[in-house]
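Please fill in the sequence for the structure shown.

STRUCTURE ENCODING:
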């Protein structure tokens, strides 16, 4: 039996999706406050303190959930993903209850907005279980081993055929890559925005809102198609018995290039997206392979037989000739 290790590096990786979601929500809160109450826009120091407070609460809850799962000797990545979602939802509820935020959600949007940190928490919990690693459960103090039991159990090894697992969490992480790459593009427009406004405070607001808005829009419109695309890439790679990250990246890049090439036949202007799409598909394939892991190839399905005489090979003579029963 194994337990997930305590790892600051894994905790930092797990907090990354939560930090992105918290930053996006804060940007929208600042933009809304700039419209409704420009004089009450919080200072940068106050924004930083609120952001640090939210992340500290998320980190504390996530680590507490990890400790609970260790006490229950649960180490599956599914359990860690569910734990991350529960802890992120609890952290969001505490922030709403104690006003640890820039602005309260509008009427009828508390639960809807809470889905974003919950999903980010699920991804964060999965990342913690992925990056922290496993360690064997220590033997209880005072336990007397059997006389014929080895002092250290031999490691469990497997040299049979393996294949890449079908991982929902891996698909979800890879499906977010188009959103992340599309969000990086507006940051190249920040200098232009800063020079295009006479009021520099307004320029700063727009320079923050446009990437955040791009992130939300791209996430809504691209996650489902990207998930379907990644699932197809995975099954193609499995069908041709490919397992390495480089092979998954190559298959993902070729598949994305082919998809955009088909769209170019209908909309020629999309030809400018051929190379970016291939690059994005390659990253998606490599990311999926990194987080999916391996599993043994399943054994053939058992055969249910009612006639023992039918249990013969494909090249058996009885398969090529018919028996004869002479009727009276």
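FILLED IN BY: designer on duty
SEQUENCE:
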């Amino acid at each position: 039996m194994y337990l997930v290790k305590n790892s600051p590096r894994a905790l930092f990786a797990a907090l990354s999706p939560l930090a992105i979601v918290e930053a996006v929500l804060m940007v929208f809160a600042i933009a809304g406050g700039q419209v409704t109450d420009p004089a009450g826009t919080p200072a940068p120091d106050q924004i930083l303190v609120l952001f640090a407070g939210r992340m500290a609460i998320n980190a504390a809850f996530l680590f507490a959930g990890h400790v609970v799962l260790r006490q229950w000797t649960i180490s599956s990545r599914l359990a860690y993903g569910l734990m991350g979602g529960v802890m992120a939802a609890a952290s969001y509820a505490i922030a709403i209850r104690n006003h640890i935020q820039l602005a309260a959600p509008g009427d009828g949007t508390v639960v809807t907005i809470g889905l974003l940190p919950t999903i980010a928490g699920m991804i964060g919990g999965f990342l913690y279980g992925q990056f922290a690693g496993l360690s064997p459960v220590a033997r209880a103090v005072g336990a007397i081993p059997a006389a014929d039991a080895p002092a250290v159990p031999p490691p469990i090894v497997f040299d049979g055929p393996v294949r890449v697992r079908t991982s929902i969490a891996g698909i979800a992480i890879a499906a977010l890559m188009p959103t992340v790459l599309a969000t990086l593009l507006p940051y190249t427009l920040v200098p232009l925005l800063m020079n295009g406004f006479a009021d520099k405070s307004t320029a700063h607001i727009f320079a923050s809102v446009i990437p955040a808005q791009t992130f939300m829009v791209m996430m809504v419109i691209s996650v489902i198609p990207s998930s379907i695309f990644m699932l197809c890439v995975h099954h193609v790679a499995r069908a041709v018995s490919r397992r390495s990250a480089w092979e998954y990246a190559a298959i993902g890049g070729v598949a994305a290039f082919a998809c955009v090439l088909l769209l170019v036949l209908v909309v020629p202007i999309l030809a400018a997206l051929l190379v970016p799409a291939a690059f994005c598909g390659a990253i998606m394939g490599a990311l999926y392979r990194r987080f999916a892991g391996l599993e043994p190839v399943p054994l053939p399905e058992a055969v249910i037989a009612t006639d023992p005489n039918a249990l013969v090979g494909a090249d058996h003579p009885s398969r090529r000739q018919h028996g004869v029963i002479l009727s009276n």
